[in-house]
Design brief:
By secondary structure, the chain is mainly beta. The protein has one domain. The chain contains 1 helix and 14 strands; from the N terminus they run H-E-E-E-E-E-E-E-E-E-E-E-E-E-E. The strands form 2 sheets. Strands 3-4-8-7-13-14 form a 6-stranded antiparallel β-barrel. The chain has a 5-stranded antiparallel β-sheet with strand order 2-1-6-12-11, with no helix packed on it. The radius of gyration is 20 Å and the shape is globular. The N terminus is likely disordered.
């Protein structure tokens, strides 16, 4: 018992703290100052748009309502996110994507690709790469690979797709914004 108390006292005085544990599966949390803040959930639609009646080609991407996320992070703050997933799902980077969104007045859009009228296609630079660290049995820390510019962002779980009818597909995004 004395050994346990002595170890706990040493760890506390050395500043080593236990990492927080996410409460819910598949919810993305912002890991800030040894606490977890849930990223707001927002439904995003997959859309395809024709430019100039098809003569200008087409664009595909995701659109969310609302111009800004409620969760705001300053540019200089550390960017670590945490998610709890069933470990049988494997590497979260194969299921979770991070996108940068262009903010309009009442919506946010991430173009994921475009195609010209003559068949040439172009991938978008809206997808953001991130590194994954395992932190426990089913908990993962997601760290963007590069410094994020000010703007709107959202994590999407590609397995969490909702369908309504034949043409409407939505995904749940976990959003945040970077402020200068």
């Amino acid at each position: 018992m004395r050994l346990f108390l002595l170890t706990a006292l040493l760890l506390t005085t050395m500043g080593i703290r236990a990492q927080p544990n996410p409460s819910f599966l598949n919810q993305v949390y912002y890991y800030w100052s040894d606490s977890l803040l849930p990223c707001p959930k927002t439904e995003g639609r997959m859309e395809s748009r024709m430019k100039a009646l098809g003569f200008g080609g087409s664009q595909m991407g995701y659109t969310m309502d609302g111009g800004r996320s409620a969760l705001r992070i300053r540019t200089g703050d550390s960017l670590r996110f945490m998610i709890k997933m069933v470990s049988a799902m494997g590497d979260p980077s194969t299921l979770i994507q991070l996108y940068r969104f262009d903010s309009k007045k009442d919506s946010r859009q991430a173009v994921t690709g475009s195609q010209s009228r003559f068949g040439g296609s172009k991938e978008s630079k809206m997808q953001v790469l991130f590194d994954v660290q395992k932190s426990g049995t089913d908990v993962f820390i997601l760290i963007p690979s590069t410094r994020l510019a000010p703007g709107e962002y959202g994590f999407m779980n590609s397995m969490a797709m909702n369908r309504s009818g034949m043409t409407s597909v939505t995904y749940t995004f976990y959003t945040f914004g970077i402020d200068p």
